[in-house]
């Protein structure tokens, strides 16, 4: 059991560190998403920095070489992330694109799509957003209703709405999951599209959260026209493509949980300054419990990384790490505000922001309840819950739901 | 970066499971509640080489580390096996650190040592202390009087795991200045009252030392602290094993038992309860990896890691043992069922070796000290 680098990994780390030493003066400052997203100049600076990281081989570390990546493994990706954090510079701006959407296009795209999109994505010239979730399709992603209708000339016309879209306000492209055949079972009539965000009929609107800020967006599609070659993968086989994206999402999350700042030492520092709090048994108990959870997640991360390095993709149980992290962070926010008092709720302050962000984060990526169901069924093998949507054409689903709902 | 079991560790674990499977330890656990004798696992323990797990190969041991010991402890916990490892392994670690003359006999299984647990000082609590018979007020560690290479001890240590039937006692006492002093005495030099509580698989003793004399063990204060934290990690490992068994039991039942026309496992409440057991189980497992790594490669973090493992595994077993009973409904609360045996194991574990709450407090203390 070994947390250290192998000699080859150590050599790689030194190379990465040296590059960052040489170039870090050119990096913009590292700002949290809330401060950064509103400022066009900052976004542009982040994109340029991403281009530099790509030039230096620090972006697309696990991408195949023939699309501009380094062709390396998950350990090297983690080494890069660690060194970037250590250097105090920001990482790539488009984590969603480079982490999940690019790999999806690489896996399912045509030769033309692979030649056209990954390169500019990697270099930050074009930022991407993920257009999956809808108001009526979150955890149950396959229930998307955004409709793509095939026209006589082979083009598609899209109508619908997407929600919780990160970076839509400055994205050049989106990867969009739409329903192309409602007469089929809900998983079978879906198609994935590349959507230019400046297409006519696309409207992006900020989505305000508890804190009042808009870090996410809604995206409305009104008669948006797409060419035939916008399809990624096969028509009506979009669910397979979506599963690839979700798998890369699990891998990306598995490789990069340093990001959110939910760390036991940071939480301890907030408490430690107060001598009465340090000695208070209730505070100590709560801090201890929070730290136990977060330390466990740190080592779960190392176990997951070990699996990834051996070519094993984490299964649904990997989602429990997020459950633990979010709930521990919620407990930490409660504890810190209990110790500091109302001052902690000053909305210019880091703790008020964290406290406001966490209730929504609990549902991000799928609700905790559905995740627990999924794990119970797929990992523990427990029997599935009764459901109305098996073996039924999607077009009949809403009628069934109305029948089943109490009067 | 490699945080997975090595082939040797997989083999060690499988061999342990196989060795223990030949004895009906869970049935025996229930019979023992009504005065039945527990099966003597000592021949199994010796044959498997477990007494020498932490003893170096020059003295006939396996020269392995804490994580390997934890894997064995985990297998014992799975089947509530009353193998005297919680007392033995920390003792053998100290004897090894002191290069004591008993090492070969210990590794061979000819002589069984038991460690008298003493808790190191903390950020709010001074001095080395031992568990009291009852209540929150901890007793000071036995008073040690050094005489050249010898030492004698006076005092009482309650709830000592595996004291009954031990041949040697590894004692941690304090001298007149409060500094810790370790020694090894013949068990016959002390008075040991055998006691069990609630969990008949756990052999405990109240040990009274009245000028009990023996050899001094030349070990550092850090090594004495390590023994305490190793015991925390071993207890955590046992608990993790018990969690695994209760989860398997509950999942199996949830698939078979029907109510209102469908399997109870198809109800979300049951599914969520068992997924929560899984979540806690895997968190505890990760912390055991942390403790195992820290023992060898991050000794400064070993107190934190072992305490975190104890805290997580203990609360996982508390939750799992209750969830197991509840998943079974009324039958889970009957004498003849296995679920209550794991409940009893959880209840006692929680209060041994300083108590689980103390471990959680140690985690907070480590973080606050570093902040």
Topology at a glance:
The complex is a heterodimer of chains A (407) and B (371).
Chain A: H1 7-23, H2 33-36, H3 40-55, H4 74-87, H5 95-108, H6 111-116, H7 118-122, E1 128-131, E2 147-150, E3 156-162, E4 173-179, E5 190-196, E6 202-207, E7 216-226, E8 231-232, H8 238-255, H9 264-272, H10 275-279, H11 281-309, H12 319-340, H13 350-361, H14 368-378, H15 397-404
Chain B: H1 7-21, H2 25-33, H3 42-47, H4 66-78, H5 85-97, H6 103-108, E1 113-115, E2 129-130, E3 139-140, E4 143-147, E5 150-161, E6 168-174, E7 180-186, E8 191-197, E9 199-217, H7 221-256, E10 258-259, E11 262-263, H8 268-297, H9 302-327, H10 339-349, H11 356-370
Parallel strand pairs in B: 1-6
Antiparallel strand pairs in B: 2-3, 4-5, 5-9, 6-7, 7-9, 8-9, 10-11
Helix pairs in contact in B: 1-4, 4-7, 4-8, 5-7, 7-8, 7-9, 7-10, 8-9, 9-10, 9-11
Short description:
The complex is a heterodimer of chains A (407) and B (371). Chain A has 407 residues and is an alpha+beta fold.
Your description of this structure?
The complex is a heterodimer of chains A (407) and B (371). Chain A has 407 residues and is an alpha+beta fold. Chain A is built from 15 helices and 8 strands. Chain A has helices spanning 7-23, 33-36, 40-55, 74-87, 95-108, 111-116, 118-122, 238-255, 264-272, 275-279, 281-309, 319-340, 350-361, 368-378, 397-404, and strands at residues 128-131, 147-150, 156-162, 173-179, 190-196, 202-207, 216-226, 231-232. Chain B folds into 3 domains: 7-111, Butyryl-Coa Dehydrogenase, subunit A, domain 1 (Orthogonal Bundle), CATH 1.10.540.10; 114-219, Butyryl-CoA Dehydrogenase, subunit A, domain 2 (Beta Barrel), CATH 2.40.110.10; 223-370, Butyryl-CoA Dehydrogenase, subunit A, domain 3 (Up-down Bundle). Chain B contains 11 helices and 11 strands. Chain B has helices at residues 7-21, 25-33, 42-47, 66-78, 85-97, 103-108, 221-256, 268-297, 302-327, 339-349, 356-370, and strands at residues 113-115, 129-130, 139-140, 143-147, 150-161, 168-174, 180-186, 191-197, 199-217, 258-259, 262-263. In chain B, strands 1, 4, 5, 6, 7, 8 and 9 form a 7-stranded mixed beta sheet that branches. In chain B, a hairpin with a 2-residue loop joins β10 (258-259) and β11 (262-263).
